[in-house]
Amino acid sequence: MSRSALRICPLCEATCGLTLTIEGTRVTHARGDRDDVFSKGFICPKGASFGAVDSDPDRLRTPLVRRDGELREATWEEAFDAVAAGIRPVVERHGPHAVGVVLGNPNVHTMAGGLYPPLLLAGLGTRSVFTASTVDQMPKHVSSGLLYGDANAIPVPDLDRTDHLLLIGANPLESNGSLCTAPDFPGKLKALKARGGTLVVIDPRRTRTARLADRHIAVRPGTDALLLAAMARVLFDEGLIEPTPHVEGVEELSAALRDFTPEAVAGACDVDAGLIRTLARDLAAAPTAAVYGRIGSCTVPHGTLASWLVDVLNILTGNLDRPGGALFPQAATDRTPRPAGPGRGFALGRWHSRVSRHPEAKGELPLSALAEEIDTATEEGEPVRALIAVAANPVLSAPDGDRLDKALASLDFMVSVDPYLNETSRHAHVVLPPPPPAQSPHHDFAFNTLAVRNQVRYTRPAVPLEPGRMAETEILARLILAVTGMHGADPGAVDDMVIGQTLGKAVTEAHSPVHGRDPRELAALLTGVDGPERRLDLMLRLGPYGDGFGATPDGLTLEKLLAHPHGIDLGPLRPRLPQPLKTRSGRVELLPGPIAADLPRLRAALAESPEGLVLVGRRHLRSNNSWMHNVPALTGGSNRCTLHINPEDAERLGVEDGAPVRVRGAGGEVTAPAEVTDAIRRGVVSLPHGWGHDRPGTRLSHASADPGVNVNQLLDGRALDPLSGNAVLNGVPVDVAPATAPGGPALTEKHTALT
Fold first, then answer.
1. CATH number of this structure's domain 610-754, picked from the four choices 3.20.20.80, 2.60.40.10, 2.40.40.20, 2.30.40.10
2. What is each CA distance from 517 to 254, 503, 513, 527, 633, in whole angstroms?
3. Helix (H, G, I), strand (E, B), or coil: what is residue 29?
């Protein structure tokens, strides 16, 4: 007999509500939840494939422990014994920084990934922290930190009310949005046009989003910051600025951008100066407007400057923090809002990587530097000798996977929390597999802070935990205990510690609703079936909509949320400045010192105009990085690893549609089928990321049957945005030529090993 259960989709940032059909313990169907307060029934192909993702036969069901060089099934007790025995000696012998931690993208898609990794890092005390952020959005965190004093204060476009939306480096019709949580992003863009609004897309490819636009500008890759700077220059020159309140540094900014006129940037951007002026004038003239930039504008040489300039344009036109512009969401689990006023500010470079001296950003080092931090000895500090990877596959996601592959094999010890034996976890000494998503609870901690409408939802597991499985929350709690010298302690002690510390601090804060109360009395009031639910209840009660443990009787609690299985709508985004600001001045600091110091590098780019081909990535609607290629329903069709090339470039190079082409970059070579298309501008080629599933020792039967190639192998990892440490993945020079027959002279030894 079948039954239904609700589940928030964890497969992309849109966080749509699903209604699952379950037969026994198996999810057989998924459809959009029409009563969900946020997604209102919308579903994409990933959500529709929830059951196939959940029941993938290649998902690991028991822990694996390396014995005599081979990974073999083990009990949970044996696995955590091995973790403690492998990590603790490294810490005690070489210090905490000799243990690296890599956190992958799926961490922000699970409740456990939101609650426990910060405790893992704090418990270890390591500075060797690497995450997917530095191959994605770190420039936005850094620019927000410098502008607002808080790296997580990221304004999002008010999609439902804006009159004019300018997208740069973003393709939400296929990505479903990123750093902007919006179910049915395509529908919201169509609604914008239907109400008479304007959509402008700046992208070197004519993406599905670009085809919907009123105006598409095929900019030269990597010149986003130049184009945005020129638009800001026009606003100043033509008296079109009407800055957002609570801002300082407007005059200084005008002087700093003096050289970036439309005529000065036109050649580098390959965009007509008159068109640049039109873009700026239209933005200023719109009743409301928002500029939104994403991964295409982050993963370039001036990613932080481009991210900063996105907000600069919103600020100069008065569209920051106003309905229809870009606003700061207010999630239900945010800390109790403190009174507006000066804060501690945001600092970069508090420490540096050991080998190349890369500065930290937001407590992280560049993922591109992981290999050298393992395989290179220096006089300063110990190399990374042990690694903890949580939902991470950097062999595919970081530049130069070949080097990292070899470096991982040299580690003294490695533990991987991952449901698959993939290109990275195959090196682990212990693999701890979390259960499928249907067997896990779900609340979106990170994505609700980026949502285009304030709301709160929580779903308990749709299917009971399978015998022999361990909840991901317990896996990470036990991992924390094992690596911090408390192996064998009750994992519930981790949650109890957090609750005690949080309440102990809250009762001392004058602005807290529980100021002056007894923390133990408050802890006794928490509800929930386990530690993670009690922590969620705690965060809801202390949050901006919470009941304050009785101070606001009709406020949020876990019990109230459970009584609303389709979620609770908390209303549209609202102006919040100056409260979110944590800068030392208590104002938006429009021209921070590190930004000003990086502008000469952007000025030098005015004279740059690459003559050869440059590479950009691309996203597919049925994919999310490397972790869905093992699901047959989500591969095939347009979700293929092909090289997009313009017909004129193809003819000049002798490349035929469907024929193999060799692509060479600073880090290596790959061969992929050509897909000749006028949807990409001349001088640019495109390969999707997340492919390259051809290494031995994995258990990815479907992905390895059609492995594609690893685009990041074309990069050697040296090209970084200096402020954020983000890898430069787009606008990268490459050579392209028809491939000779397999085994022919054009296939180098390195290339043969790759493909």
1. 2.40.40.20
2. 50, 9, 9, 18, 54
3. strand
Domain ranges of the chain: 2-54, 59-127+362-434+460-487, 138-327+594-601, 490-564, 610-754
* Packing angle, helices 303-316 and 138-148, rounded to 10: 50
Per-run averaged pLDDT (10 residues), the chain, 755 residues: 94 96 96 98 95 96 96 98 98 97 96 98 98 97 98 98 97 92 96 98 96 97 97 98 97 98 97 98 98 96 98 98 98 94 96 97 98 95 96 96 97 98 98 98 98 98 96 98 96 98 98 97 98 98 98 97 98 98 98 98 91 91 82 86 97 97 96 97 96 95 95 96 97 94 37 28
Does 59-127+362-434+460-487 match 2-54 at the fold level? no
Place of tokens 């501690």: 344
| Token pair of 614 as six digits | 């440059």
Structure tokens at 324: 């229809």
**138-327+594-601 domain in CATH 3.40.228.10?**
yes
Instruction: Name the strand (E) or helix (H) holding 201.
Output: strand 198-202
Beta bridge partners of 164: 198
Which class in CATH covers the domain with range 2-54? alpha beta
Torsion of CA 353, 357, 360, 366, to 10 degrees: -70
Asked if 154 and 448 touch (Cβ cutoff 8 Å), the reply is no
| pTM for the structure as a whole | 0.96
- Dihedrals phi, psi of 699, to nearest 5 degrees: -125, 70
Dist. CA 437–CA 55, nearest whole Å: 9
Looking at domain 59-127+362-434+460-487, its CATH architecture is 3-Layer(aba) Sandwich (3.40)
| Continuous segment of H or E residues that includes residue 327 | strand 326-327
Taking alpha carbons only, the member of 514, 540, 513, 544 closest to residue 528 is 540
By the 8 A CB rule, do 656 and 674 touch?
A: yes
- State the DSSP string of 188-243: HHHHHHHTT-EEEEE-SB--HHHHH-SEEE-PPTT-HHHHHHHHHHHHHHTT---P
